[in-house]
Amino acid sequence: MNEFEYKKRVNQAIDYIQKNIENNLTVEEIADYCCFSKFYFNRMFRAVVNESVYSFIKRRKLETAAFLIRTHVKMSITEIALRVGYSSSNFASAFKEYYGVSASEFRRSNDVPVKDSYIRVAEHIKKMKKLDLSYKMIDSRIEIKKFQKMKLLYERFIGNYYDLSEFWCEFTQKMEKKKIINENTMFIGISYDDPLITDENRCIYDVCINVNENIGTNIHTVEQGYYACYKFHDKTSNMINAFNEIFALWLPYSGYEIEHRFPLEIYHSEMDSQGRMNVDICIPITKARYI
Are 57 and 23 in contact (CB under 8 A)? Predict the structure, then answer.
């Protein structure tokens, strides 16, 4: 089996974990899903992701929980624990062991240790929180849209989001050589992680283009649904500020909550002379149950 096949199977496993994060997942179950023995699959997964399947599952569950605590201020800690497949008591000990504080303390402080490269983002959000008009400023740039079902051809990046530009260039060049890109092609990114929570060098991101049919195996099917679309026109290095504005300052008070679909970055322009781009940051939403 070549390197491409390894990555393809590991991507299938990651997608399976993401879609079933609320379940009590086991390494055996995921290995079976990918048609490998537990021992062989764990070795293959570690070679690609640089951590064991068990470690990855635990990390994704706790990081998802931390994200929900930040963005769903009216959802109880107990329900969040169930959302990521933990009993209330097991979650309490696992969360405190991982983050060094209890889940309730995390919610009160809404603060996590941030690596140097993301300190400016944390400081930006703290300053925005002090402005009475922050919510209205963000809400004025958001439009609720209904998207139809579509298929996305993707390649997966695991690393620091600040290193994405080269990966995007390589992907685009590859698609152009295969003559897949045309005048109707949409360039779409999918971010899975908040670097203020996830180790900045373990963040997952999919670079995508829309396609009319399954071309190969790396295909996402984006189901029909509603999105809160934030109009972004700035340097891509500032996009993380916009994401955190949406999640930390707009979503908790918007009357919506995140639905289990992909967040989408839809690119509408190339980079201008000042390094800015037009991008719609689209967050899958449904009406909140806690208002």
Answer: no
Phi-psi map region of 89: left, alpha, beta (phi>0 left; psi -120 to 50 alpha): alpha
DSSP secondary-structure letter at 27?
H
Tens digit of pLDDT per residue, the chain (291 long)? 666 777 888 999 999 999 999 999 999 999 999 888 888 899 999 999 999 999 999 999 999 999 898 888 888 999 999 999 999 889 999 999 999 889 998 888 755 555 555 556 556 556 656 556 778 889 999 999 999 999 999 999 999 988 998 999 999 999 999 899 988 899 999 999 988 888 888 999 999 999 987 776 788 999 999 999 999 999 888 888 888 889 888 988 898 988 888 899 999 988 888 889 999 999 999 987 654
Q: In CATH, what number does 142-287 get?
A: 3.20.80.10
Please name the residues in contact with 110: beta carbons below 8 A apart, sequence gap of 6 or more: 70, 248
Where are the chain's structural domains? Answer: 3-111, 142-287
The CATH architecture one would assign to domain 3-111 is: Orthogonal Bundle (1.10)
**d(Cα 62, Cα 96) in Å, to the nearest integer?**
10
Give, in order, the Cα–Cα distances in Å from 128 to each of 95, 165, 249. Answer: 28, 28, 8
Determine contact, residues 220/154, Cβ cutoff 8 Å. yes
**Are 47 and 36 a contacting pair, CB within 8 Å?**
no
